[in-house]
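Journal club side-thread
Mid-discussion, someone asked how the predicted structure for our own chain would compare to the paper's figures. Pasting it here so we can look after the session.
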Amino acid sequence: MPGRKRPLTPCPNPLFLQWLTEMRDHAKEKGLKTQYVYQKAINSLKKYPLPLKNGKEAKILQNFGDGICKILDERLQNHYRENGKLTRYGSPRQPRKAEGIIRKEGGVKKKREYVPQKRSGAYAVLLTLYRNSQLPGSKGFMFKNELQNEAQSICDKSFTVPDLGSKYTAWSSVSTLIQKNLLLKTHSPARYSLTELGLEKATLAEESGDGPVTINLTVNEGEWEEEDIAENNCIPSEEPTAATTVNQAENVPTCSGLSGTGRDGHLLPGSYDIVLCVDFIETTGGNTARKQELVKELQKNGVIFDIRKLNVGDFLWIAREKVEPVPGQLRPPVAKELVLDYIIERKRIDDLCGSIMDGRFREQKFRLKRCGLRKPIYLVEECGSAAAHMSLPESTLQQAIVNTQVVDGFFVKRVQDVRESAAYLTVMTRHLQKLYQVILRQSLLSFDLKCDMESPQCSLISFTEFNHGAVKNKCQTVREVFARQLMQISGISGDKAAAILEHYSTVSSLLDAYAQCVTEAEGEKLLSSIKYGKLKRNLGPVLSRTVYQLYCTRGPLS
């Protein structure tokens, strides 16, 4: 007997399938190549076994881009307007759990209130967006980074670092706010704004002062939704985490409405905290478990740290002003953040090998020298016998480390693993807290004052100015582009490139000098007598000839 044919399972998304088929046929009639795109989307949709609520959810499927999802959403909205919100099989739409319309067996409803706890992530996000909307010239929305920074001051939990043993941060509660129709997330990069309901509840919270935001919901007794679990995990514990703990210091008289700020713009002793800044790359991507171990170790050691984007280096320290709310003002004053003179570049031995091979090693050292901080530190994680399995010989790696210390003048600290790195960062933080017990900021930024235990004051640059000046891909002058070109030549370091630039600041000026040379031999020796470095050594005929061949050879280089 011939085998029975297996009945085809009906597509759980018949409307989407119908519309995609219509679009494919329409494109086919006009001879458009988009017919193949729609056909691929149809094939993916037929394989998906679950119903989709909207076009946006279809983006998880293969061959569904922003354009197709947007078209499906538009057609779905038109369908709802014409036919009402029915299910795809034509039955009346069942009440959704998020709307809180769930009946018990006896038909009795029981109400429960969704209450973002005071100083929780959800509470802070609502109030921050509301306060931002009340400012003159407000855009009506906030980006993720600025929202996290503004909301952190009224939240007891970190928006970026999870508690020890937990994967949730204060930011996790944002999904709950979106589910409850209090928060709207649009565009890419994401823009966050309050819905009408969210604005209403945030207004009540602002007017009530200490009162939390409450929203009436109707749910089954003992039944919790996924987002409620995320919200409960974001409720801060009684003891603050290390990332948000601030050491208590002596009370300092306030001046000009700013806590601990002197009349001449100085930061007074006791009016600031020494905070370790960790580049976000050190906590995300790659081996996440290993990177999270660093965060956990710092939390265990009670280090005050903040995760942010650093345009140069992996770790640095700032003196962050302690500020208090001013009576009669909506927001507390913005705290000054001054960068201390110490910056760390962290290298695992495998990362060191890769950076030497692709040229990042020299460039990173050059950028560290130019960043303006006088105490650069190279933190090398040797990772046991890992160097024996690298693409470069171990002797080459060790020579690179020694050159960094002897030639470049960096302080090199060798450690074995992540725990030792965290221990070194902890010790350095404690040391700097003692070293910078008395730190003043002058109105004019300069670096001519020595900052140590014997100096009662020193001049520092603000973090914003420092990070902006260290942007890697900012607009460059012709001189800077020329310097980067020279540094791509094997054997030309930052010092040698700088020495050449002192004589010839652009490629044009160098070519003009070569044009004045009578013979080719004279051109090859043009740069050989240029002095570079502290010892004022000659650049040498070999490098001089290499540069000449690069810029003056018309055919391919041999």
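Post-session note: The first strand starts at residue 111 and ends at 114.
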